[in-house]
Design a protein that fits this description.
The protein has 3 helices and 6 strands. With 163 residues, the chain is of the alpha+beta class.
Length: 163
């Protein structure tokens, strides 16, 4: 029981509540379960995550920064950004793509590099529908990937050898 005999609850639709539920070591199992439920893939099951710094500063003074709700890396090196957005935001898609560039850039060490990138996933839990009926009303999950517009195959990266 909480204060004055009342039970206390966390509202997952607030930044504080969402981060408390999914962004803390204490509740890491909830995040892992959530990610595995989204993937629903027996070949790829996340066993563990490590939380990373959710605040990404720009490279120089005046550069734009990004602050994620939850940012983690899995045991296979994949990086996950999980964002909760309660109020409609006109540029959510653009922001999601911008946010995904931070985990991509941080995979590029100085010096020689083989250009191998681990997967980067941005998950948006939205409490609004995109405007202009872009998606059917009963559609809750939208998976977006880079695709070749000619043959519709998923754009896959390949390792390049640097000599």
């Amino acid at each position: 029981m909480g204060i004055e005999g009342r039970e206390r609850y966390i509202n997952p639709y607030t930044d504080f509540g969402f981060k408390k539920l999914f962004g803390t070591e204490l509740n890491k199992d909830l995040l892992i379960s959530f990610l595995n439920a989204l993937f629903n893939d027996e070949k790829r099951i996340i066993q563990d995550v490590q939380y990373l710094n959710a605040e990404q500063l720009g490279d120089g003074y005046g550069d734009r920064r990004a602050v994620f709700d939850v940012y983690c890396i899995t045991e296979d090196g994949s990086r996950f950004i999980v964002e909760m957005q309660k109020a409609e935001q006109e540029y959510f898609k653009d922001r999601s793509i911008y946010y995904a560039t931070a985990p991509i850039r941080e995979q590029a060490p100085k010096g020689k590099w083989d250009y191998h990138l681990e997967g980067v996933y941005t998950i948006g839990v939205l409490n609004f529908v995109f405007p202009n009926n872009e998606y059917p009303a009963d559609s809750y999950i939208h998976e977006v990937k880079l695709k070749d517009t000619e043959d519709n195959h998923i754009f896959k990266f390949r390792k390049l050898k640097i000599s």
